[in-house]
Amino acid sequence: MLVGKASPEDYNLHPSQYPWATDLYNQAVRNTWFPHEIALKEDLDDWAKMTEDERHAVEFLVAFFNPAELIVNRSIALGIYPYLKSAECHLYLAKVMWEEANHCVAFEYVLQTFPIDRERAFSLHQNVPSMKAKEDFINKYMKRMTEEELDVTTLEGKRDFIRNLVATNIVMEGIWFYSGFMVALSFRQRNQLRNVGSLVTWVLRDESLHLKFGINLIHNILEENPDMVTPEFAEEIRQIVIEGVNLETAFNKDLFPRGILGLNADYVNQYVQYVADRRLIELGLEKYYNATNPAKWMSTATDVFELVNFFEAQNTNYEVDSGGEKKTKPGQ
Amino acid sequence: MTLTITKRDGQKEAFNADKINRSIERACVGLLDPIGMTTQIATETKLTLYDGITTEEMDAATINAAVQNIKEDIEYDKVAVRLLLKTVYRRVVGEYNHDPAELETKHRVQFSAHIKKHVADGLLDGRMEKSFDLEKLASALKVERDEIFTYAGLSSLFDRYSMRDENQKRIESPQYFFMRIAMGLSYNEKNPTEQAIKFYDRMSRHLYIAGGSTNIGAGTARPALSNCFLLEVHDDMDHIAKSVADVMKISKASGGIGVSITKLRAAGSPLKSSNTVSSGPTPFAKIMDTAIRAVQRGGKKLGALCFYMENWHYDFPEFIDWKHNAGDDYLRMRTANTAVWISDEFMRRVEKGEDWYMFDPKETPDLNELYGQAFSLRYAEYVEMAKAGKMRLVKKVPATEQWHQILTSLQSTSHPWLTWKDPVNLRALNNNTGTIHMSNLCTEICLPQDKDNIAVCNLASLNLAAHIEHKQINWKELETSVRLAVRQLDNLIDINVLPIEEASRSDRENRAVGLGVMGFADALEQLSMSYESPHAWDFADRVFEFISYIAIDESAELAKERGSYNNFKGSGWSFGLVPLDTIERVEKDRGVVIDLPKITKQKRLDWDRLRAKVKGGMRNATLMAVAPNANIGLVAGTTPGIDPRFAQVFSRNKISGKYLDLNHNLVKDLKNMGLWDEVKEHIIEDQGDISRVEGLPAYLKEIYKTAFTTNVYAYIEVAARAQKWVDQALSRNMYLESRDMDDMKNVYMTAWRKGLKTTYYLHMKPRHTAEQSTTNVNKAEMTGKRGFGAIKLAAAGVPLGAVASPVAVNMPSPIEASAPDLVVAQKSESTPAETVRSESGVAEVASVKPAERSVADAPTDPADNPNVCIACQ
Questions:
Q1: Residues in chain A within 8 Å Cβ distance of B742
Q2: Do B414 and A310 touch (CB under 8 A)?
Q3: d(Cα A178, Cα A60) in Å, to the nearest integer?
Q4: Regarding beta strands B208-210 and B455-463, do their DSSP bridges make them parallel or antiparallel, or are they unpaired?
């Protein structure tokens, strides 16, 4: 069982019951990167040439991501990790928490390097109503995780666990973050902020795994606890996702009060709906928005292998654990 | 919402959809589906508009809308090219009334004024006006050749090479650009105008393209035209400081740099002056690593440099870590690259499992100058001295252990590149003036250098693919291209102005040029050969033999006309040697026969005649070097250098932007077969690998492999065949899927045994990439679980293991979604492919996949398909 009170046998990795979590851990280790590998000087030159609206969008996004990464960490530490029995999941979550810290430091690195009014940027998430609303939404679930101890031996406790997971993993990491990534990468697409783009590419690579983990976790828990799977609960989960999309829609209007080249709030929100539909389907629910992907250029940004001229840009494709892998020989 | 547009003069004007539509329509003229394409681009442009958008942003938005559709149909590439050209024409020749004839006239008539204006404002060299009949040149301009470009190529040309005015605005059309290069390399010809037209004709047809620095500097008032510089740093503070300054000056002049630091004494080596010890090469290298970040090469890109070190250096283990992503930043090179300069002695010790010793160059100063057997003998003496305790600083490891360290670092950081000093030196025809201590930034240059000589090479590359006519190489055309390219390169040297005397001297005395080849893989595809087939390798043999023969012959001809290069006496050429003859030297030195067919593949080439001819004189110390052409390959719209097709679709991360690269050859083949629309989504889903796409003929899958599915030994074989004929070297990029260290050791050991001089980047196939955005993604499929989808099934009494479908919850949806079953039924009717499937009696589960893919035919996004199966894939 995934959810429950940890017993002594849960401290053993073997025999592995959830090998997918071990695989995620191994890949996560290979994906290790550090913000200081990227130099930001050229981006500062871009920054000087950008319009007020473009700068506002960048500042707004970084101001959101910076604390958001820490919120995710808190939710993992207090709301997910303690209620899982699986040693494989604990292994992976330990790496995830380091990654979230690393992401926070990466956005911090950008904030500290760019000529941004840092006091203003750091307080945005508390002062802008649409940004605060997103945080409040997450805090509502965080509170249940942290201040009220869940009794995950009960059906309601397990449901609470899933609600929390959907709010932080699916909505926050899986929808809000993805919307932000698309906006950040759109600058890269127009040949601006190429180095911030490299950082975002790394963050996105990590987050893709986090999301994979969350979806695996939800599916496995639902399968292990079939009595949780009722139309009423499905509907409730769906509402959590929809509420998340509504909050993001309001946020994006503040992100783009006007438009910038290639983007405006409606465009981003169509993308949000497109991603949200994908998440619903991944949960086994029906899509809700039937939105098409307006950002066809994302195929260039994320969908295919990237060939990098090393002396032109940071190659973000390398993985660190070389020498460790052996071919599996027949019979092994 | 009402939209207003901010015009160039700051005036606001109401958005006029009709105006945009008409402008897009004009760019679609003559294409297959102009109306459909216009609608698509206009719709997507409108999505991104906002109130107050400027006219320039609107142009960019329209171009972007066309560009993001290239993955659907390469015809959109043409539209994007035309839209981009229009913005440039407007700037260069002024407004024109969308009439091609009017454009042609304006473009021609204004050429002479354009040259005169920029001679006057100091951008161009005075000779550009004085030496030429400008009217005659203008009438040779062919603006219609702008249609040859791909969007990525045109955009790179503008971004990287096109001349700019003081406001950073591009002031050259592509044809003006080619003419500037042609003119800028013809000043000293007897008839500059005639000659410039000949060069222009080649380049404007993309038959060959000059190297990057030449493209930036030719014809301008600052003609620093060389691409490659190779300098060694000597073991004294003054020379280190001078070298830092040299690196900065060379970077400013847009050159790429190779820097050998083998001669720098080791960390811990005594310093006489202060009775302290040296800090070793790392901190000094770090100064250069930082310096190149400060300099914009030719104002257009960051400095680029590669450090070379021999692996017997005491600090070599530290050198291996220079590119590691963790650790002390002051001991890491974040910008510069690294390459190891390996001896045959080391490779033999790896083979035999012997020990490897590392020394302080202060104690072994001659090792860096020796190669082949002479190196081995001296190295053995030092080893004996070390064993006898007579060396101050020594490290010893099993050779296999260091080999393992080099390759593990290569796998995780793509550094250090592996280059072999012995085949480089033993096969050189130009090292009569001294030892070659390194290669360059791209590992294709093999030139000697010392304290007084910074080696310099000047590049241009032939576009093999552009020489294909009716499914064969037009050899006559190719010969003309080779001869003109060599002449153009030779002309360059007398016009070149380099920032450092040691470099100018070396350039003058050696007149080294490197004619390369690009479009090799592109040509193979067009000739229907697989990169990993013996036919392709024989083809490499034939092509490189031919180009090498003509290039050498042309240099010998130029020697007759203009005299030999100063250092000719004593060179391999002066003994009547040609590149093929030098393989024997390596074989003799190694005491093994290199496994390569030594016979000539071009029956009609008389090498004996040429041997006699080169003995009489050569104009250039070197003729060929196959550069990676990552930029000019893009400009010419072909595969760079001898690289394979990276994937059928992939993205190129360039300074000028991020481009989707879609293989036009494949798309054309698939369109001919009527398969393109059916499979295009799947090709992106599989990240440009068509091997698992159903319904494609097997032979296509052979021709169109990706860099990672091609047998890695094919890369070695192609390079080995070409290396027979190329007097310098080739930038051999490697691509590996396997991360098994034994596999990797075999690959690089084979590369050495096959006589390769150098290898370049190792591209590892990523094991994991970020979630795709535009394709159909459902991560739950991998879990094999149904999630909330189980509800509906349970209600319907469907047994476990059956096909899952999403649960319908009673929720009003903003768009009325059809029931999943209904959608499947509709699709069945409309797609014959799927009907065939169900008739063939394949179980229902299997039929879901084609049904899902058939949605890709529809203009809607595949992820819109509600019939997403969770359990069955």
A1: 327
A2: yes
A3: 15
A4: antiparallel
What CA–CA distance (Å, rounded) separates B374 from B352? 20
Residue type, B759: T
The count of CB pairs under 8 A between chains A and B is: 309
A241 in contact with B, Cβ within 8 Å: no
Report the residue from A27, A310, A326 with minimal CB separation from B767.
A27
Q: Which of A81, A109, A288, A289 is catalytic?
A: A109
Cβ-Cβ contacts under 8 Å for A177 (sequence gap 6 or more): A65, A68, A207
ipTM: 0.83
In a 3-state reduction of DSSP, which class is residue B340?
strand
Phi first, then psi, for residue B167 (nearest 5°) are -95, 15
Residue in chain B lying closest to A195 (CA): B655
Domains, chain A:
39-303 (1.10.620.20)
Assess whether the previous peptide bond of B814 is cis (omega < 30° from 0).
no
- Residues B342-387: tens digit of each pLDDT: 999 999 999 999 999 999 999 999 999 999 999 999 999 999 999 9
From the list A262, A274, A303, which residue is nearest B863 (CB)? A274
Beta bridge partners of B306: B258, B337
Compute the distance between CA of residue B220 and CA of residue B215 in angstroms, rounded to an integer.
10
Torsion region of B257: left, alpha or beta (phi above 0 gives left; psi -120 to 50 gives alpha):
beta
Instruction: Kindly report the nearest CA distance between residue A137 and chain B, in angstroms.
Output: 22
For residues B432 and B571, the answer to whether their CB atoms sit within 8 Å is yes
Q: What residue has token string 């499947």?
A: B824
As a dihedral over the C-alpha atoms of residue B257, residue B558, residue B552, residue B612, rounded to 10 degrees, the angle is -130
Q: What is the pLDDT of residues B789-808, one digit of tens each?
A: 888 777 776 554 444 445 55
Alpha-carbon distance of B578 to B555, in angstroms, equals 13
Burial class of A124 by CB neighbour count within 10 A (0 to 12, 13 to 18, 19+): buried
DSSP sequence for B482-543: HHHHHHHHHHHHHH---S-HHHHHHHHHH--EEEEEE-HHHHHHHTT--TTSHHHHHHHHHH
State both tokens at B93.
């020749």
